[in-house]
Fold these 3 entries.
Entry 1:
Amino acid sequence: MNSRILYVIYKECIHIARDPRTLAVMFLIPVVQLILLGYAVTTDIEHLPTIVLDQDLTRQSRDLIEAYRASNYFDITRYASSEEELGRLIDKGLYRAGLIIPTGYGRSLIKAGRAQVSFVIDGSDPTVASTALPAAQIIAQAQSVELAAELIGLDPTDLPGIEVHPRVWYNPDMKSVNFMIPGLIALILQFLTTLFTSMSIVREREQGTMEQLIVTPIRPPELILGKVAPYVAISFFDLAEILVIGVFWFGVPINGSVALLLALSVLFLLTTLGMGILISTIARSQQEAMFLSLFTLMPSIFLAGFFFPLEAMPQLLQWMSYVVPLRYMLIIVRGIVLKGVGLRILAGEVLAIAIFGVFIFSVAARRFRKRLE
């Protein structure tokens, strides 16, 4: 690395140090997003507030209530006196589910061996409803097996049927935080490098110092490298920050090679830095550069499978996701961190990232060079 590049890097570091608010944002954004995604953005539905209307008041109805109470899905904290009261409390949003046990439930179980109950779920939030519904059905089925075994005098394990032994690989506890935090690594790399690279170059143009740089012996490739190098270093610091907090605070396991993760992150930076440089050649102000960076970030989040599975999207959006580099980086990061896979398994995604990186960075560097000339 020649002295001209070092001088540009030194100059850019001074700019960053003189703006403490921007510096604070660079280091605090990963922590804030990590906390929000780790605690607030979760698909793990547990301890759902549940109200019960027990019109039977028998041992059998109490056993059913205790079966629901014993699960981690439903917290039974109140008993209603009528269906009107139960409906009113669910309408207010105080309870998300309600169990209605009709009169004669216990008698029907004793005489006929079967009975019916109603389980009301607030479907205004489909995520909650889609988790609560199968949980309610599973608990009822387990209770039915125990009752059937009790009526015929057999141990439940001796009943005929198919016994399934499920095994969950890579994320046995099915914690959503183990899915979100690795994805945040790729998201932070794209967000920080694209946003701050574009703003730093536009800032030179706004302050009138770009013309001063042009008349110096510094060549365009050296100027590009010197401008982006500090933000690459900051991005890798944030990456390490996410990994440390994720492992020691949230307990996310790292099953693969950290060195491989860092190496492929460098490859991904070709794409994000190229996008930042390309935006800097379009934007005329730092505010415009920020809006353009956010404009490119939002579609990437939703089309890359960061929050929602690609398989659940319409076919057209699935096709569009193939031109989103973040899609491939999410597969790489989650594959290394959660599955512990290596380069041989990720060869297709690595090739796609390399193609995107070389193409976008080349186009951005050529356009930036023309703007300087």
Entry 2:
Amino acid sequence: MSQEIKVTTATFQKAVLESNIPVLVDFWAVWCMPCKMMDPILEQAAVDYSGKLAVAKVNVDEEPELAERFGIVSIPTMILFKGGEAAAKKVGAVPRHIVDEFLKEYVS
């Protein structure tokens, strides 16, 4: 069961910026093969970090305002938000252990 949430321009403020826990936002697109490679990794991370981290997905084709707002020029791009601020960014498809390393500093 996926713990990921779909985020839109309308829901971004509440779901991401006002979250009580860190939120990893995956900026992706349906046609992006590296994005598809990241799907199972992020789905499992959402389950493994449940209660400590939320994983949100933003489709850049459906939400170009959010992609522009956060300077997304390549996908997949993952931005970790903590306390309403963008704390870290990772661009490109990476293996699970790299995702874990990326999150380690921000998720207790």
Entry 3:
Amino acid sequence: MLTESTRSKDFPALAGRTYLNTAAESVPPLCVGEAIQSYWQDKLSGMDGRQGHFAAVEACREVSARMVGLSPDEVSFCSCSSEAYNLFASALDLGKGDEVVVSDLDFPAGATPWLRSPGARAPDVRVWPSVDGVLDIADLIPLLGENTRLVQISLISFYNGHRIDWKPFQELVRRLAPAALISVDVTQALGRVVLDCEGADLLISSTHKWTLGIHGGCVIGIPRRNAQRLTTHAGGWYHLNNAFDADRFERAESKTGAASFSVGMPNFVSLYALDAALRYLESIGIEAISAHADPLVARVHEGLRELGIHPLCPPQPHLPGGIVAFRHRDSAALHAALVQAGIHVMHHAGRIRIAVHGYNTSGDIDHLLATLRAGLRTVRPD
């Protein structure tokens, strides 16, 4: 992943491509495809294949727990972050008079469940506004109080790559809103940076981005101290202790905490894939990935500034992440030039987002900046 030889061996799909869109979709290593084939072979055994299926779930739980700094019994899985947040809303069961704080840099999955409560039961949603692409902790202070029940944040924003300075954020919430839970979406961080979310009450991550997995999975981490408090009220069967007992039509007894989020049959194939992907990342080392990719991100920032382009979030050298985004009046033309040059980035509503992972190279960044430079001469002649 970090050298030309390992990149060629493990990621042959990247040959001849400049792929800078991992914040949307990763390109998995070959071992992930092999894991999917293992699932297929087990599936061909019919019911007998479930022995392999459930073993894969437990293996994935074990490595996922290590990656998020929890114990295996504090980690579970569902199908996507949207499902996880809606199940989380079920567990909290907030109502009138409760207050929820979200940021304007958060992904909709984490910010919108609280807006979907029936009118009479809807909590008060307060938005922590970013200023010049940054969430200033001073702007959070007036939003916190004795009625705050939840502060939802993304460790790294999908929108512009802004990363929360976790320790002062967490300490402020605990001091000013002692009854509040802190939930953190680590989708744009897990697999790319060393997590620093100590003290979080809930961690959620999709599996098809920096973790190098595929769609259909989501990691949920709930520390043991919150197991009773964060148990969903959803129906289902896989998360129930008495799903097939004689009293199953009289009561539904849920497992607690993270286990309560796995309400139905696991999406086995996504967990085979995630297990292989996380073990691959672990074998490389997240510290090594950051040490390789962070200087490339710094070069993107520097190169954009030299081109007169101002990223939507300023550099954060002490808080590394993989995303750099910018707006431009000619973004559609610039994106077309990048596509023509074989460069893959995200373009949406005038915003171009660049994502740098461990499989990217200095040549990728050179190609990106050279193409932008040429594109700017076309759309904005000297």
